[in-house]
């Protein structure tokens, strides 16, 4: 029997910005359920790689397979729906919608994935992150740690197979950092999801293995 297809499979990935190579990955796979860290010095391409895997950015060359879908070949609208359903994103800028309540931020993520509203799921997640009694509050009324937890809840509301996080803990104290990572790992386990975190945060290196260490081979190499 052949082994199961990897959840992420990048082939011949090459990305150039302004004539400069910022990513060059001949072949990289992540199996379903395999959590880990994406490491590398500043400017080595971690954020760029997460954006490419999420289909937010098209690579200059190469194939990006996520959950059996070739992301680069999908129409933008289809790619948005696939992303909404299969991939949860937590970026450095949390991109919470400040004009919407906490509950509506989660409902919006359901709508963007073309999922029917599921208020039970919204209430369950808000309770899990300790904000069950503040469903009608707005993101600006939350502390940084609470906003970060809301961003995780939004990332997992559709039970995605893959959660990508970019420096999710860099602004957090030790207590909030531990709580956030516990929450991400717990949600990943509950949903059989894979968790991939790009980070410099040494605190995470004690909890998760490195899956990929990017170097910056092309820094300064202008074509
Ligand atoms: N829009 C852009 N225009 C020009 N260069 C860019 C652009 N986006 C990214 N880059 C360059 O691509 C390289 C990789 O950037 P990226 O943000 O992915 O690195 P990173 O490893 O996430 O860095 P950090 O750890 O500092 O966040 C950097 O050299 C960056 O300057």
Automatic annotation (TrEMBL):
Record bears the keyword ATP-binding: yes
SUPFAM superfamilies recorded: P-loop containing nucleoside triphosphate hydrolases
One term of GO molecular function: ATP binding
Record bears the keyword ATP-binding: yes
InterPro entries the record matches: AAA+_ATPase, ABC_transporter-like_ATP-bd, ABC_transporter-like_CS, ABC_transpr_LolD-like, P-loop_NTPase
Residue intervals of the ABC transporter domain: 8-222
GO cellular component, as recorded: plasma membrane
Keywords: ATP-binding, Nucleotide-binding
Superkingdom, natural source: Bacteria
UniProt-recorded name of the protein: Putative ABC transport system ATP-binding protein
């Amino acid at each position: 029997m052949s082994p199961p297809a990897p959840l992420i499979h990048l082939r011949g990935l090459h990305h150039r910005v302004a004539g400069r190579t910022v990513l060059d990955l001949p072949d990289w796979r992540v199996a379903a359920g395999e959590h880990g860290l994406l490491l590398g010095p500043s400017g080595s391409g971690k954020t760029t790689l997460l954006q490419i895997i999420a289909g937010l950015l098209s690579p200059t060359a190469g194939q990006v397979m996520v959950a059996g879908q070739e992301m680069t070949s999908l129409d933008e609208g289809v790619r948005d729906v696939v992303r909404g359903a299969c991939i949860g994103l937590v970026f450095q800028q949390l991109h919470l919608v400040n004009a919407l309540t906490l509950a509506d931020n989660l409902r919006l993520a359901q709508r963007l994935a073309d999922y029917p509203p599921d208020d039970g799921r919204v209430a369950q997640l808000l309770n899990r992150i300790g904000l069950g009694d503040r469903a009608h509050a707005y993101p600006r009324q939350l502390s940084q740690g609470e906003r970060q937890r809301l961003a995780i809840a939004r990332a997992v509301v559709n039970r995605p197979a893959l959660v990508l996080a970019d420096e999710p803990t860099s602004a957090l104290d030790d207590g909030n950092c531990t709580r956030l990572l516990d929450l991400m790992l717990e949600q990943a386990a509950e949903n059989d999801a894979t968790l991939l975190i790009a980070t410099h945060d040494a605190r995470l290196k004690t909890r998760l293995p490195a899956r990929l260490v990017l170097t910056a081979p092309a820094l300064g190499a202008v074509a």
